[in-house]
Each structure stands twice: as structure tokens, then as C-alpha cells.
Design brief:
This protein is an alpha/beta fold. The protein has nine helices and eight strands.
Length: 218
């Protein structure tokens, strides 16, 4: 049994985020999204074990040789813990493991409709999210029926050190002007999450802040 790090509920309290209830034509959205990262955290299961209930897991691990088997394990773990699961970039695999939906990385969201947003028509019950690194990508995701968009990079991040972050002012402009719920992604941790208050974000998406074993501030 892997060591279980501290529960990450304080991250949500710092940002004052809560689940967004669903309604007519809208799906319930979680306040917290954990994205797996095969390079930095090959085994995502310890992080999933310590996520607060009502969180969402996005399984990336795009090139992992055991991705199919991992997806089945992660799906079972998410069901056991009351978490929702999206598979990134692979609709058939999402359907195979009975995931709650599909996440489209920006390169796929820009691609052929049959490879990306075509799943909106095939599986209208699914939660469909997309990544956006520009205003144009955010507009495209909105126009094509994404339920929520992960806008990045919000802050400086070690995973993409050469990419200029949006910053909170630019992010807030995009979030408040968007016609779709927006999450902040990139450099979101216990030191930066408070800056998202009032930014228009419906929640936060993170990798290392949820996968490492550092104890959050009390």
C-alpha cells in the first residue's frame, strides 16, 4: 500500500472554491482537477488516494506502455473513492473503462472534429473538457461545446520553464469574458492559489501540488 500524503482539501479552502452545481443543459463541475503526469509522477495512484471527494482526475500518461491497464486501475480507484475520471485524448479508452468523459489537449481540440469534439455528439452524457493556451483556443473550445476549459499556464511552472505565464490579470480577463467555465492550470499551489480569488475561475487544476508529499499549510 503506497504512503498516503495529507489530504489536499486545504488547497480548496485557500482558494475558496466549491463545486459548481449542474442545471438544465449544464453538468456539475468539481472544484479541483488533478492531471496525471507520467514523467514527473509515473504512478498517479498515491495522489488519487489523497484527493478530496468530488474531485476530478484527468488521466494523461499519453505514451505510457501500460496506459490501458493503468486506465482500468485508475477508473476502479476513482469509483471506489467517489471521484470522477476523464481520459485525455482517447475516446475509445474512456468508453472502455467507463470514464465520466474526455479531456482534449489543445493539439487535439484543434484537430479533426471526429477526433475531438465529435465525442460531444456521440456521448452527450460525458463531461468534456479542453485545454487552452490562448484566447483563440479558449474561443474554439467554447464554440465547440466544451463543458469547461483549463486555461494555462497561469503562473510560472517548472514543467514549462520557457513558456511565458498568463499572469492573474490576463487570466481574469479571459475567465470573466468566457462563456464557458474556466479552470486555472499551471503553477497553482499553496503559495499561489489565493491569488485566484475573484479571478472568475470556477476551480483549479494542478499536478505537482496534488502529487507531492509536502504537508500543506494549516
Amino acid at each position: 500500500m503506497p504512503e498516503i500524503p495529507p489530504n489536499r482539501s486545504p488547497l480548496l479552502r485557500c482558494g475558496a472554491f466549491h463545486a459548481v452545481p449542474g442545471g438544465i443543459g449544464k453538468k456539475r463541475l468539481p472544484p479541483l482537477i488533478y492531471l496525471t503526469d507520467a514523467k514527473r509522477f509515473p504512478n498517479p495512484e498515491p495522489a488519487i488516494l489523497q484527493l478530496p471527494r468530488d474531485s476530478l482526475v484527468i488521466l494523461r500518461h499519453y505514451d505510457a506502455p501500460n496506459r490501458q491497464a493503468l486506465a482500468h486501475r485508475v477508473a476502479s480507484l476513482c469509483r471506489l473513492r467517489g471521484l470522477r475520471l476523464l481520459v485525455a485524448g482517447d475516446g475509445p479508452l474512456a468508453a472502455e473503462v467507463r470514464a465520466d468523459g474526455l479531456h482534449l489537449p489543445e493539439w487535439l481540440a484543434r484537430g479533426r472534429v471526429s477526433d475531438g469534439y465529435g465525442w460531444r455528439r456521440r456521448r452527450p452524457d460525458w463531461l468534456l473538457t479542453a485545454a487552452a493556451h490562448s484566447e483563440a483556443a479558449l474561443y474554439h473550445a467554447t464554440a465547440n461545446g466544451a463543458d469547461a476549459v483549463l486555461v494555462a499556464p497561469l503562473f510560472a511552472t517548472t514543467s514549462h520553464p520557457k513558456v511565458r505565464p498568463l499572469g492573474i490579470a490576463r487570466f481574469a480577463t479571459l475567465a470573466h469574458g468566457a462563456h464557458v467555465p474556466v479552470y486555472g492550470l499551471g503553477g497553482v499551489d499553496f503559495g499561489t492559489v489565493r491569488r485566484l480569488r475573484g479571478s472568475g475561475a470556477v476551480g483549479i487544476a494542478a499536478v505537482s501540488a496534488l502529487a507531492n508529499k509536502r504537508t500543506p499549510p494549516s
